[in-house]
Design brief:
Layout (H helix, E strand, L loop, with lengths): L1 H14 L23 H18 L8 H10 L8 H7 L3 H8 L3 H14 L15 H11 L4 H9 L6 H22 L13 H16 L14
Length: about 230
């Protein structure tokens, strides 16, 4: 682990991140031997976030309400959402879009990290660039399912990553998150063109998903995101 931390710090420094010294190598919720939570929980959380994203989408070509509802019911996806997220589902799709559409981009950052753990090829980066454009379409529209049938197909193609690989990437984000938090408090600890709030938010959300995956038994909202 010392070697992994050293490599992560070296990489971050090369990218322009300044990380505080003395960050613990072992944290209480993760432990020294990384363990992933059950694949069904990871898959359920990912599908639930995609379904939530679809519910808030009021584009003319958006999936019909009945299709999204079937997806939610088929996998009991509401059990994988937080209380606040389930409140969004209690609204009409028009109301949900008006009130929460601007927040859904942050859920995409969670989705990228969760999808990678389940076999999506592109590893989450610490560059802070939000999921969007061609990459966003490939992840959110091509790889992630839009209905119950596609959910079943994806479940058969899951290739869960090794816990050590996930742990190593989470450590990179843990360290980057430390630099982001310092920058948000006024320190010069991120690259010059890196916005501590906008780009830093991407680091936060990707780290949240990775840390949650490595914290079996911990609820999403209780994930330890201290730095």
């Amino acid at each position: 682990m010392n070697e992994v931390r050293a490599e992560n710090l070296k990489y971050l420094l090369e990218q322009g991140f300044v990380v505080a010294g003395g960050l613990p190598l072992v944290r209480s919720d993760i432990g020294e031997s990384p363990t992933l939570r059950p694949v069904g929980e990871i898959f359920g959380r990912l599908l639930a976030l995609k379904a939530l994203w679809l519910w808030v989408d009021d584009h003319p070509d958006a999936e019909p309400t009945a299709t999204v509802s079937e997806m939610l019911e088929f996998y009991k996806l509401q059990s994988f959402l937080t209380a606040d997220e389930n409140e969004i589902l209690s609204l009409s799709r028009e109301e949900a879009c008006q009130q929460y559409g601007h927040l859904m981009g942050w859920k995409n950052e969670n989705c990228w990290a969760l999808a990678w753990v389940l076999g999506f090829s592109d590893k989450p980066s610490v560059d802070g660039v939000m999921v969007g454009g061609d990459f966003g379409r490939r992840l959110m529209l091509d790889w992630l399912p839009d209905n119950a049938v596609q959910c079943a197909t994806l479940s058969e193609d899951i290739k869960l990553r090794d816990p050590v690989e996930v742990h190593n990437l989470e450590d990179l984000f843990y360290c980057a998150h430390n630099a982001v938090r310092s920058a948000q408090q006024g320190s010069e600890t991120v690259p010059p063109e890196f916005d501590p709030v906008l780009n830093g938010g991407c680091i936060h959300e990707r780290r949240h998903a990775l840390t949650w995956v490595l914290s079996p038994g911990v609820e999403w909202d209780d994930t330890d995101l201290s730095t």
